[in-house]
Each structure stands twice: as structure tokens, then as C-alpha cells.
Design a protein that fits this description.
Shape: globular
Largest sheet: 7 strands, mixed
CATH architecture of the largest domain: Alpha-Beta Complex
Structural class: alpha/beta
Helix content: 25-40%
CATH topology of the largest domain: inorganic pyrophosphatase (n-terminal core)
Distance between the termini: 14 Å
Radius of gyration: 24 Å
Number of helices: 16
Oligomer: single chain
Number of domains: 3
Length: 536
């Protein structure tokens, strides 16, 4: 990879978000007026409502967010439903709609799902159930005939910001309901929901720009003083000091634990964590999720080892497609992400469910919109598909797993958006002596960092390596230690280090890295996060 200095780095504007100034009017969403009117009618008439959520670290907080609002206003005529990731398809199902009808449900509100559920919404309509879809995934050409669809990605929607996650959309719905409803809530009560929005926004890896940056900025403030017993328990289980929780802590520690509930069991466990008010229950669930996450890591590594053998036998095509019947579909998104990191091309991985369905996940390297790629591959390949530009899920029609590789690669060149650059850009040069608290205070003004608002990358020239250590299960992470001119130690961490370049103590290297502040074991420490390195 070639390294080049950026021509210009511009900060977000304005640098410090303002809640009142920067949050957009929720009624700019197409259909928001109608959605609010329908929900207020249901609340007044005490109609049975189902909150139907997705099972990931966006859908579960979104479900908890809307349920928390109903609880706060004293509305009890609702239930929530989150599908079993291993046994059911993504989104609504015909069977569940029939069950809801039998249970006299009058309104379904989806969160973080529903935009592709055409047949399911048609059935709900026939059964006398209204459906309000709140979603952020890419809409199909033909949309469900729902009562209302709240999704900024609709071509005819005028909401200015298109990148809210599912929890972000759910928050805008609550914001609108509070504006129009007479709930006698304390002014600004909705801000207490922002801890959930921050967790979801960071975990779902939507761009931390525009309104997402505002929601996450204030969401982190709320999270640091959260009233949620479950989030407090999870932070305690992870040995994270709530006062110093960062977006990295959510992305690398909190989010994966919430996701582990559905990946290694059922998402209801994560939902219960976010909703419980019992300290002992919260502590037990938090410990269970941490244990599940450890098991998840082992399962991912086992599949990756198997995949390495499969990839070695394949011709290097533009899209990497692998699968085996014994791969657990619940963790294949993580496997696909790791494959993209290593092979620098889009990756699709599939496995078989207990009921014989072939389900899988795809991750993009940025060169192609995954949903467009799958749609271009043909209607006679997938029974279900959906997702984002960069991440998607799918279910194959019976017996089609043998065609997936050929069909995706056949249409790749038709829909690819760009050739991936072999250049890594950095912002400026820095010395180890420049890694100071003063420098960090300047950097953190740009936080929260994430997709679309990345940390500044620094070039460190001719660093002498003092110590090299591999750590983590199986030695998959790299830690380099350097000495400043004042003989202070500065560490550089590379998680999931996959480069073939081996580094030894005493060598001199050039390093691209970001700066971060770690509070591991409660000890504040400035350190570097490796972006790339090479021999000097």
C-alpha cells in the first residue's frame, strides 16, 4: 500500500454539536404526521400494539427505546417481538402476522426492519392490522403497502439526513409523538433515550456525520450517567468506568455483547438487559452476555480456519464466496468482515440453519453496493435479501448455494462503483514526543469518531521498536512498544493483525497510526492504534 498526505483536512461544522440547533424536525420525514396520528389513536383507544424489532445491536436498542417511551407514558397495551436469528427470517414473517391477528393486535410498529416485507404487510392488511414501518435499510423498487413507511432512504422522502440507524429513526418517531401528544413528560425527557441511540448508531456503523454525530455526542454524555440498570451492569462486567466511556468502548466491547445474545442465543436476553430495573438480574444477564461473546469469538476463529482452507482452493475472483453446511449463520457477518480485511474484496459467507435454509451475510470493501449486487444477480437466487451498501444478509432459494459464487461474480463489473484505491492517506506527520495530553485534547474535539468521521491518521517516521508482543486468544493482536526522547513508553496496538510483515525488537519502522486514550483497568494511557507499517 502507498502512503500519501491528504491535501486538506476539514473539521465537521460546527465543531461542538448543539442539541436544539442541530437536531432536525422529525416531521420532515414523509409520513411522520400520519404515523403520529395513527399511534396516538391507538394509545387513546388502548389498541394492542406490537413493537417488532430486529435482533442486532441496532434493532434491540430500538425496540427498548420505543418500549421505554410506552412505559414512561403508562401505556401497557403493547408487546414486543424479536425473531430468533437461527430459526426465523429477518423481519416480519407470515406465521407471526397470523399469530398477531389471533391475539387481536391492531397495530404493528417495526423498528430497524420491515422495508422489504411486502407479502407480510399484505397479509396484515387482510387481517385488519395496520403496519407502521420504521426502517433505514435500502427500500426495494416496490415497497410494502403499509399504513405508513418512515424511511429517509425512500426516493420521495425529503428528510435532509439519510443515514440514521434504526434506533435513530425510532428516536425521531418518539420525538414527534412527544411534540404532538399530551403526555405531561418533563421537558427534555427524551434525552434519556439517547444512550440507546448512541449504542445503536456506533454498533451499526452508520456514518458519524450530520445528525448521527449530534445524537451520538449527546448519547455518550447520557451513557456516562445512564439510569439503565442493565447498561450500568454491562459496563461494570467489562470493567469500564462509565465516566470515561468512548465510542471505541461501544464499538469494540458493548455492541458485540449485545449482538452476542442473538448470535449465540436469542436477542431477548439483550432486550431484557436494557429494560430490567433489577440490579441482580442485570448483573446475571451482563455476565451471560460476556460469556456468550467469548464463545462467539471462538466460533468465529474456528470458521475462519475452515474458510482459509476453502479460499486456498479458489480462483481469486472479484467477489469472495465461501460456505459450508455446518457454518452457523448467526456469526457469518463477523467472518465476512474479517475476510474483507484480509483479502480486500467483497465477501459472502453462507451456512445452513437447523431447518435446512441456506442463510448468510455479505460485507463490502467499498467497491460495490451489496444490495444492488445481490439484486443484479437475479430473482431466482435469493428468497430474501436486504441490508445496506456495506453490509447485507440473505437467504438462498433451495439448492442455489452452488450458483452463488458464479452469479455474484458475473454481475460484479456491471454494478461496481469504484476501483479500490491502493493508497492510505494520512493527515500529518507527528513524533512520539508529540503524543501528549495537549495533542489529544485537540483531537478529541472532532469526536465522536467512526464511519465518515475517522480519527486523524499520523505518520511516524523511523521509529525504533523497543518491544514486540502478540496477545489475545491465539496471539491475533499485535502490540509494539517505543521509547520517546524522554524514555517514556508509547504503545501501538494492532487488533487482528493480518499483515505478512513480521516485526522484531530493535528494528526501525515507519508507522501510520491514530491516537487514542485508553482507560484499561482504570488507568488512563495515551496510545497509538496501528493503521499500517513498513520497514524504514
Amino acid at each position: 500500500m502507498e502512503w500519501k498526505k491528504k491535501d486538506l483536512t476539514l473539521p465537521p461544522s460546527p465543531l461542538v454539536p448543539d442539541y436544539e440547533r442541530d437536531l432536525l424536525d422529525p416531521f420532515l420525514f414523509k409520513g411522520m404526521d400520519k404515523a403520529v396520528e395513527r399511534i396516538l389513536t391507538a394509545l387513546t383507544n388502548k389498541e394492542k400494539i406490537i413493537i417488532f424489532g430486529d435482533y442486532d445491536a441496532d434493532g434491540v436498542p430500538a425496540t427498548a427505546l420505543l418500549a421505554s417511551f410506552f412505559n414512561q407514558i403508562g401505556f401497557t397495551f403493547y408487546d414486543i417481538f424479536i425473531p430468533d436469528r437461527h430459526l426465523e427470517s429477518y423481519g416480519l414473517s407470515l406465521e407471526r402476522v397470523k399469530e398477531f391477528a389471533a391475539d387481536d393486535v391492531k397495530l404493528i410498529i417495526t423498528v430497524d426492519c420491515g422495508i422489504t416485507d411486502i407479502a407480510e404487510v399484505d397479509l396484515a392488511n387482510k387481517q385488519g392490522i395496520d403496519v407502521i414501518i420504521t426502517d433505514h435499510h435500502l427500500p426495494p423498487a416496490v415497497r410494502p403497502a403499509a399504513e405508513v413507511i418512515i424511511n429517509a432512504k425512500q426516493a420521495d422522502d425529503r428528510y435532509p439526513f439519510k443515514e440514521l440507524c434504526g434506533s435513530g429513526v425510532a428516536f425521531k418517531l418518539v420525538q414527534a409523538l412527544i411534540t404532538r401528544g399530551n403526555f405531561n413528560l418533563p421537558k427534555g425527557w427524551e434525552k434519556w433515550l439517547l444512550d440507546l441511540v448512541a449504542v445503536a448508531t456506533i454498533s451499526d456503523m452508520v456514518p458519524l456525520t450530520g445528525e448521527n454525530r449530534v445524537l451520538t455526542h449527546f448519547g455518550l454524555i447520557v451513557l456516562r450517567k445512564t439510569k439503565r440498570v442493565g447498561l450500568k451492569a454491562l459496563l461494570a462486567a467489562l470493567k469500564l468506568n462509565p465516566r470515561f466511556v468512548t465510542e471505541d468502548d461501544i464499538g469494540f466491547m458493548v455492541g458485540p455483547r449485545i449482538n452476542s445474545a442473538s448470535r449465540m442465543g436469542h436477542a431477548s436476553e439483550a432486550y431484557n438487559l436494557l429494560m430490567t430495573e433489577d440490579v441482580e438480574t442485570a448483573a446475571t444477564i451482563a455476565k451471560n452476555l460476556d460469556t456468550k461473546n467469548t464463545a462467539r469469538k471462538g466460533a468465529v476463529e474456528n470458521i475462519l480456519k475452515a474458510v482459509e482452507g476453502l479460499v486456498g482452493t479458489k480462483e481469486p475472483l472479484p467477489v469472495l464466496v465461501v460456505g459450508q453446511n455446518d457454518f452457523s449463520p448467526g456469526i457469518l457477518g463477523l467472518v465476512a468482515s474479517r475476510l474483507v480485511e484480509k483479502y480486500r474484496r467483497p465477501a459472502f459467507v453462507w451456512g445452513k440453519t437447523e431447518f435446512g435454509e441456506i442463510k448468510g451475510s455479505g460485507r463490502s470493501d467499498g467497491s460495490v453496493n451489496l444490495v444492488e449486487l445481490m439484486r443484479a444477480a437475479g430473482d431466482n437466487l435469493f428468497s430474501d435479501l436486504g441490508g445496506h451498501v456495506m453490509a447485507a444478509g440473505f437467504t438462498l432459494l433451495p439448492g442455489k448455494e452452488g450458483e452463488l459464487n458464479d452469479k455474484l461474480n458475473a454481475v460484479y463489473n456491471q454494478v461496481k462503483q469504484a476501483t479500490m484505491s491502493s493508497v492510505i492517506f494520512y493527515d500529518r506527520e507527528l513524533t512520539l514526543d508529540g503524543c501528549t495530553e495537549a495533542t489529544w485534547r485537540v483531537i478529541e474535539q472532532w469526536a465522536p469518531f467512526g464511519v465518515g468521521n475517522t480519527k486523524p491518521v499520523f505518520l511516524f517516521n523511523k521509529l525504533k521498536v523497543f518491544q514486540v508482543k502478540m496477545f489475545g486468544n491465539g496471539g491475533i493482536h499485535l502490540e509494539l512498544t517505543f521509547k520517546t526522547n524522554q524514555s517514556k513508553n508509547i504503545c501501538a496496538i494492532g487488533f487482528f493483525y493480518t499483515k505478512d510483515l513480521k516485526v522484531t525488537a530493535g528494528e526501525t519502522i515507519d508507522l501510520l497510526a491514530t491516537m487514542e486514550k485508553s482507560y484499561f483497568r482504570g488507568i488512563p494511557e495515551l496510545r497509538l492504534r496501528i493503521v499500517d507499517l513498513k520497514k524504514a
